[in-house]
Amino acid sequence: EVFPELGLEVLPNRDSLAYESVYGIEGAPTVFRGTLRFRGFSRRMRALQLAGLTRDVPAGSGVAAWDQVQRDMARIDGLQTELRECEDLLGLRSDMKLSNPGSVLDSLCHRMEETLKFEDGERDMVAMHHDIRAVMPDGRVEAHTSSLLLFGDQHMTAMCKTVGVTTAICTQLLLRGPTPGDKEIPTGVVTPVCKELYAPALKMLAREGLVFEETKTTLAAQAASLNTVK
Fold first, then answer.
1. Among 33, 40, 131, 226, which residue has the fewest nearby CB atoms (within 10 Å)?
2. How far, in Å, are 59, 108, 115, 131 from residue 67 at the CA level?
3. Please, are residues 70 and 92 in contact by the beta-carbon 8 Å criterion?
4. What element of type H or E holds 85?
């Protein structure tokens, strides 16, 4: 389990198979790219979906308030507890008007923007975890993990730091060239899997406090058929 103290769940993040060729691992039995969310997220989102609140359609003829939408929500089978939790979290009162009767989805998004924004003293969090398992040429099975858990502070959000600082460093490397001792970066369109780019970038990110914790372990012999990338 990834970051067990946080109580997370993992959801598939679109088609992962495209990354086989990107990372040069064609033929790997398992390639999985997931999104981490707090436990219960998927059930609540499924409840909103079953209730029709994630559809970009008009609310219906004459429908202008959430109580009319909620009557339709009450007709779905199962996940009623999750629906009630969403109503409470978003403050969907029966007398509340839809912000956009022409789109149920827009109205839901507007309500989320109002109720789920950062309050004073709150901060964001970025959590990343990589799990790579492979059979080595000598038959050993190695498991490598690389994890990052970063919180925002009063100066910068964690999302801004991980995305913005990384982009700035890569831009600097491309414009100014490598630092002494590093290899020349290829010209043209360069992806993050280019070692001449990511190796110096990781060192510069470490100086900004962005460091992954890495582990390597040898698995039991019976796992020799594994060649998994997560």
1. 40
2. 11, 13, 18, 46
3. yes
4. helix 80-90
